[in-house]
Design a protein that fits this description.
Elements lengths: L1 E7 L4 E8 L3 E7 L4 E6 L4 E6 L4 E7 L28
Antiparallel strand pairs: 1-2, 3-4, 4-5, 5-6
Length: 89
């Protein structure tokens, strides 16, 4: 199982591990909905994690070549290993 680590930045230690798809690459946090959206490079998918329940609520297949996603209230998220989250336009 692949995990996505939640880190306490004040203590610089892992607080808990969230399950995700294969080879998590980048993420976007949606505080309002309590979700983390994680792009999985090798899994060619997007994992939608419920922060409070610590579960994957949905796994979205993205195919071989990912695209950048923009949604209301979300930061940019790159799902292509050829781009970084900051270069996604």
């Amino acid at each position: 199982m692949t995990t996505f680590d939640e880190i306490d930045v004040a203590k610089l230690e892992v607080v808990r591990k969230l399950a995700t798809g294969s080879s998590p690459e980048t993420f976007a946090l949606d505080d309002k909905r309590g979700r983390i959206y994680v792009s999985n490079e090798e899994g060619s998918s997007l994992s939608i994690l419920d922060i409070d329940q610590n579960i994957i609520v949905h796994e979205v297949p993205t195919g071989r070549a990912g695209r950048c996603l923009y949604r209301r209230g979300l930061q940019d998220l790159s799902m292509s290993h050829q781009r970084s989250a900051t270069s996604c336009t």
